[in-house]
Design goal:
Elements (H helix, E strand, L loop, with lengths): L14 H15 L6 H8 L3 H8 L2 H24 L5 H16 L2 H5 L2 H7 L9 H25 L8 H20 L6 H11 L5
Helix pairs in contact: 1-2, 1-4, 3-4, 5-8, 5-9, 8-9
Length: 201
């Protein structure tokens, strides 16, 4: 028998394009200062349609945040994939953050860093998601350091967990510096970071 149930109305917008616009707004203004009205104006989608698609602002932020983090992880994974050893992977990860901080991308701000700084003002439902994404970066760096120790490219007596926390803090600091428009010396800063952490001679 032919299904004669009425079909739902087609979406009036491209979800991914909308989330990309929301990401830009959240990065520029932060969570608290961005309203549904602001998001509607920026995306060209009515507030009613946004509520219908995402229920509320926290849900829209969660979807935008997930998209932002996934895209960054995909990009970083690609950049690390051809590195020869653990030390080189760490260097490339640092370089990636440094490049972003030193470009127009840096002046837009990092959605992860911005959310961590404003953690106390986020809807409580969003806090676990933001904290978890930060922990994933630390775990990735810890694994890269351990890989470097296993292949001999990183000092064997370096504490992987502690060093990973330091590198993550440096990466976040770079994004904060980039937000101010400060010019960063890519080569010198990268070399100093690797030396201070005893990851490179």
């Amino acid at each position: 028998m032919k299904d004669i149930r009425p079909r739902g109305r087609p979406r009036e917008f491209d979800r991914e394009a909308l989330l990309d616009q929301a990401i830009l707004l959240f990065r520029d203004r932060g969570y608290q200062a961005t309203s549904i009205a602001d998001l509607a104006a920026a995306t060209g989608v009515s507030a009613g349609s946004l509520y219908k698609a995402f229920a509320d602002k926290p849900a829209l932020f969660a979807a935008a945040y997930e998209r932002y983090v996934e895209r960054r992880i995909d990009r970083l994974t690609t950049e690390l994939s051809t590195a020869q050893n653990g030390r080189e992977r760490i260097e490339r990860a640092l370089h990636s953050y440094l490049e972003d901080a030193s470009s127009s991308e840096g002046r837009l701000g990092c959605m992860v860093v911005g959310s961590l700084v404003q953690l106390s003002t986020l809807d409580e439902r969003l806090v676990p998601q933001v904290v978890a994404s930060s922990a994933k970066l630390v775990e990735l760096l810890r694994r890269l350091i351990a890989e470097g120790q296993a292949d001999g490219s990183v000092a064997p007596d370096l504490d992987p967990g502690g060093a990973a926390e330091v590198i993550a803090a440096l990466m976040y600091g770079l994004r904060v510096a980039g937000r101010t428009g400060r010019e960063l010396s890519s080569r010198d800063l990268l070399q100093q970071a690797m030396r201070l952490l005893r990851i490179a001679p």
